[in-house]
């Protein structure tokens, strides 16, 4: 083969325009698929030999050539070229350069269309395993923080207004539950990623006697795609990963937002470690929570990637179209961003200092035991609506006087309702309020302890 000629150049009379080479090349982005491309090619070559489509000797030379190319790449000695478009052609060209004409046999019964989607699936399968581990790690770190401050009570909020006292640990476990579902979504995605597309050819399959099951076994795929057109056309497994990542980022972003809020002077519930904050170029006193802010900000980037690929896919006629090359940047950047964000959040959570006294003090204020008083009256036979209205009046009296419910003397409380007795004062403490919420999933310590035990943290 003439150097400089395209591997697909036979039917072309002239050279490709320089601008087109530059415009269509994806090597800068997809070079990272090299390991998976080589693994896929090695399995393919072994199958070709087993089926006697090429000889065993030829297969051995191809496999040896591919392995040495992997080494070249890993040692930084490989010269990637935009003239060869993508990672697949770069490796194939180099293989032919190294082992000679036998290298030209590798691409038998294969198209770049099934090759590229194989590489993507192998790549995402590997990365999903690290993503799953990273989600698990953050979950455990949050659970450990919950254990460390198991008994600390904080104000729970709705509408960002103080609502009812809750255990700080219970609040943290809410984030754990969200991450647990992210983990489930990612595992579900992994199942659908884990399907062998190779053997679909360009779109219609192949006339050559290949054995797809053998390739699947070599590459560890439990399943094989059933329709060659579907296999090279769809990228729903990427969309699914991007969707799961977008939802994960909704969760990370909300956790990050709480870190930002809680570390402000206005809340003062936590202190972020100096090592994870940055200063201001102008204001010497500043300590800024840039890490959670960036995690919050990167959510926008991930949502954008999902939107981008949905848009790329939506009008494409079957089967392969070059538009599909645009799947790589969103996927790779999402993988990188998800992994980095999970990891830095885990580190951060591991070093948060909780200002228990501030949280406890905040939990005393805001008349957050009003619901408890209403429940107390319900326990003494009053219908809830009447109790709600009555406590509303007590709350108004407290607001006028600037005092808490439990600061009103019994005599006065009795004037609102004779059903109120001395035991109401024990009932109204934040501790009692929390521990009485024993309904399944409620904030009572007993529930939180059980969940932590289930997780093996306690
Ligand atoms: N680089 C392409 C991609 O990433 C694969 C090549 C398929 N190209 C083609 N002309 N059939 O999707």
Descriptive account of the structure:
- Helix 8 (212-219) links the parallel strand 3 (195-196) and strand 4.
- The chain has three domains: 9-108, Fumarase/aspartase (N-terminal domain) (Fumarase C, Chain B, domain 1, Orthogonal Bundle), CATH 1.10.275; 113-360, Fumarase/aspartase (Central domain) (Fumarase C, Chain A, domain 2, Up-down Bundle); 366-454, Ribonucleotide Reductase Protein R1, domain 1 (Orthogonal Bundle), CATH 1.10.40.30.
- The strands form three sheets. It has a two-stranded antiparallel sheet. Strands 3-4 form a two-stranded parallel ribbon. A two-stranded antiparallel sheet has the order 5-6.
- The chain starts with 17 loop residues before the first helix and ends with a helix.
- 60% of the residues lie in helices and 5% in strands.
- With 458 residues, the protein is mostly helical.
- It has 19 helices and six strands.
- The structure holds arginine.
- Residues 26, 30, 86, 112-113, 116, 320, 322, 324-325 line the site of arginine.
| Largest sheet geometry | 2 strands, antiparallel
CATH class of the largest domain: Mainly Alpha
Report the helical percentage: 55-70%
Rounded to an integer, what's the Rg over CA atoms?
31 Å
What name does CATH use for the topology of the largest domain? Fumarase C, Chain A, domain 2
Basic shape: elongated
Mean pLDDT: 96
Associated small molecules = arginine
CATH architecture of the largest domain: Up-down Bundle
- Uncertain spans: none
Strand order in the sheet with the most strands: 1-2
Structural category? mainly alpha
Query: What gap, in angstroms, lies between the N and C termini?
Result: 67 Å
Domain module count:
3
Our estimate of the beta-strand percent is: under 5%
């Amino acid at each position: 083969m003439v150097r400089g000629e395209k591997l697909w150049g036979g039917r072309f009379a002239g050279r490709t325009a320089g601008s087109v080479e530059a415009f269509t090349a994806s090597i800068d982005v997809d070079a990272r698929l090299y390991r998976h491309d080589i693994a896929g090619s090695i399995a393919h070559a072994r199958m070709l030999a087993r089926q006697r489509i090429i000889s065993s000797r030829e297969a051995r030379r191809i496999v040896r050539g591919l392995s040495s190319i992997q080494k070249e790449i890993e040692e930084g000695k490989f010269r990637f070229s935009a003239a060869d478009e993508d990672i697949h052609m770069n490796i194939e060209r180099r293989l032919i350069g190294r082992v000679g004409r036998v290298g030209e046999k590798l691409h038998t019964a294969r198209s770049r269309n099934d090759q590229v989607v194989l590489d993507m699936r192998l790549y995402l399968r590997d990365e999903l395993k690290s993503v799953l581990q990273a989600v698990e790690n953050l979950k455990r770190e949050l659970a450990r923080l919950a254990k460390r401050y198991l008994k600390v009570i904080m104000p729970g909020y709705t509408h960002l207004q103080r609502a009812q006292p809750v255990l700080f640990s219970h609040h943290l476990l809410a984030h754990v539950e969200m991450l647990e579902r992210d983990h489930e979504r990612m595992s579900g995605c992994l199942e659908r990623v884990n399907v062998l597309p190779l053997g679909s050819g360009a779109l219609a399959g192949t006339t050559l006697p290949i054995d797809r099951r053998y390739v699947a076994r070599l590459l560890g795929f439990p399943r094989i795609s059933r329709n060659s057109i579907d296999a090279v056309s769809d990228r729903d497994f990427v969309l699914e990963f991007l969707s799961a990542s977008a939802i994960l980022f909704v969760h990370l972003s909300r956790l990050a937002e709480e870190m930002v809020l809680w570390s402000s002077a206005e809340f003062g519930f936590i202190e972020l470690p100096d090592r994870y904050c940055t200063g201001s170029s102008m204001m010497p006193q500043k300590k800024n929570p840039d890490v959670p802010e960036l995690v919050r900000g990167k959510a926008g980037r991930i949502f954008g990637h999902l939107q981008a690929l949905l848009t790329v896919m939506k009008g494409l006629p079957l089967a392969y179209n070059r538009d599909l090359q645009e799947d790589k940047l969103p996927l790779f950047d999402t993988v990188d961003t998800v992994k980095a964000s999970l990891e830095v959040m885990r580190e951060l959570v591991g070093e948060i200092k909780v200002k228990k006294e501030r949280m406890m003090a905040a939990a005393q204020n805001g008349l957050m035991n009003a619901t408890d008083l209403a429940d107390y009256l319900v326990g003494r036979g009053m219908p809830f609506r009447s109790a709600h209205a009555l406590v509303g009046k007590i709350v108004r009296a407290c607001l006028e006087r600037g005092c808490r419910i439990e600061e009103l003397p019994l005599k006065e409380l009795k004037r609102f309702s004779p059903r109120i007795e001395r035991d109401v004062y024990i009932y109204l403490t934040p501790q009692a309020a929390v521990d009485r919420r024993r309904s399944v999933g409620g904030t009572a310590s007993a529930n939180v302890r059980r969940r932590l035990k289930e997780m093996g943290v306690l």
